[in-house]
Amino acid sequence: MKNLKLGRDVGADETGLDAVPRAASRDQLGSAPLPFHGYDLWNGYEVSYLGHDGKPHVWHLQIRYDAASPFIVESKSLKLFLNSFNQKRFTDRAEFSNEVLRALEATLGTSVDLVFFDRDRSPERRKLPGTCVDGLELTGPVNGYDANLLHAQPGEGTFDLHSHVLRSNCPVTNQPDWGAVWIRGRGNHHPDPASLLTYLVSFREHQDFHEACCETIYMDLHRTLKPQALAVSCFYTRRGGLDINPHRFSEPPNEVIRDLVWRQ
Fold this sequence. Notes:
20% of the residues lie in helices and 32% in strands. By secondary structure, the protein is α+β, with helices and mostly antiparallel strands.
């Protein structure tokens, strides 16, 4: 990762996208093939270009690509890439979209879905379903990331829990990344809510990218619960006009979660 723009000063002409291989973090998950499907969804809140007449156009852009892609895009490079269009003229939105799409697909090695929102049509902000565990007491001291803090309890049918205290750290700059996590599933073992909160708190000094943290949470739940079905969604707050939302599912998802949550 030494060639990434992240964590260093960059010149005005450094606007290319940086790809980060998923393999490095996934090798540490210790499961092949990986027992999940999913996608990464980005919200770009500061997307703008000029029309053919020089008039600015602004959009809320959602970028989505499959979790099976060999690479993720690094966020600082994506910010600089999108900002490079601020003073560039395009005939119409389709021309702009095609240029962004070509660059992203070449970087990620997979197909990419772009959805544009404007002031008349935008994603809704919603309250996460299920039970919030944040009001519970911790089960004990927390001294760094520890999967053993997570415990199962007997259960029947489905479970649906969420938390807003997720905090992890960038592996390059060690800057904090803040977010919410929504966990739902089905099986004979459910997460003990207090242990789930304690486990999530253990990420507060953990260094990894957003996508890898989501997959670590998924795998730890998968090993602890051995569920019939499981889904983990992380909703991170924005930085540099972008936020990242990894979603992982035991089965291929039937729909895309586009809504925003509190703090996004």
